[in-house]
Design goal:
This protein is mainly α and 113 residues long. The chain has one domain. α1 packs antiparallel against α2. The protein is rod-shaped, with a radius of gyration of 26 Å.
Length: 113
């Protein structure tokens, strides 16, 4: 029963991970698309060279800030996932230990027959 629960938990976790990856990919794609759109709009806008350079500098700074934020988010998620994986590993080890004890108990009982 415990092994079945662990397998179901593992499947649910895999589905959640897939959803997180999809969401992350969408966010990255949207960020890249927005950056490209801003850059294209800036370069094609009817402004003076100085204004255009200022806009490009602002856009570059904003893009750098966005990247830093995303990196921090990924770091936090990675730490959480690592902790979850360690917890899952510990549960598996507990199940293995209990299974070994159960097998030893069954062997002892079988010897008495």
């Amino acid at each position: 029963m415990i092994i079945k629960d662990l397998i179901e938990q593992s499947k649910k976790k895999a589905k959640v991970e897939a959803a997180k990856k999809t969401a992350k990919d969408v966010a990255i794609g949207a960020s890249i698309g927005a950056a490209v759109g801003v850059a294209a709009g800036t370069l094609l806008a009817p402004k003076s060279g100085k204004e255009t350079r200022e806009d490009i500098a602002k856009s570059a700074k904003q893009a750098a800030e966005n990247v830093k934020e995303k990196v921090e988010e990924v770091k936090i998620k990675a730490k959480e996932e690592y902790a979850d994986m360690k917890e899952f590993k510990n549960k598996v080890e507990d199940v293995k230990t209990q299974a070994k004890k159960d097998v030893a108990d069954i062997k002892e009982e079988a010897k008495s027959y």
